Amino acid sequence: MTGTPHNLLTTTQIEAAARAVHKGQRDKAGVPYAEHLRAVAEGVRARGGDEEQIAAAWLHDTVEDGKLSQEWLREAALTRRTRDIVLAVTKRSGEPPEAYAARILATPGALLVKEADLAHNADPARLAVLDEATRTRLTEKYTRMRTLLGLVAGERPDRPA
């Protein structure tokens, strides 16, 4: 169902749904996974993102982690743009990083969500609690993705949201 402005899920409802489906899940550092979602949503807001991007930030890992299906996403009372962003930032099994980055860059609004996701994933305080091998592997992975997306040390390229 495609919602009209009057029957779309609110950001608060989307946050509650995301928290519910990730309940009990923890990240690599043992922190409740919903804290990552919150940090990404806050990062999107701090970078000037709009409500559709903030909604996508709350949902950005739900399909990838198998918490919600693509069918749920299609049927949910979300804007098309929010759905498109969530699908753009959802990694596909076996997909090369270059194809993933290209899809993000081709989807209006997705780059800002992925930028906030990478910023939180690469937060030194978050990485510090991991073993050295994992920390090194993830740092290299996030640096490569930032390069593929044209993001340079905390700066955003001049691209439309």
Describe this structure in words.
This is HD domain-containing protein. It comes from Streptomyces incanus. It holds the Pfam family HD_4. The two termini are 25 Å apart. The chain is globular. Mean pLDDT is 89; it is low at 154-161. Helix 1 (11-21) packs parallel to helix 3, helix 2 crosses helix 7 (110-121) and helix 7 (110-121) runs antiparallel to helix 9. It is built from 9 helices and no strands. Helices cover 58% and strands 0% of the residues. With 161 residues, the protein is mostly helical. The protein has helices spanning 11-21, 34-46, 51-59, 70-75, 80-89, 97-106, 110-121, 124-127, 132-149.
Largest sheet: none
Estimate the mean pLDDT confidence: 89
User: Uncertain segments of ≥5 residues (pLDDT<50)?
Assistant: 154-161
- Taken from the alpha-carbon principal axes, the silhouette is globular
Protein name: HD domain-containing protein
Pfam families: HD_4
Summary of the model, kept short:
With 161 residues, this protein is mainly alpha-helical. It has nine helices and no strands. It has helices at residues 11-21, 34-46, 51-59, 70-75, 80-89, 97-106, 110-121, 124-127, 132-149.
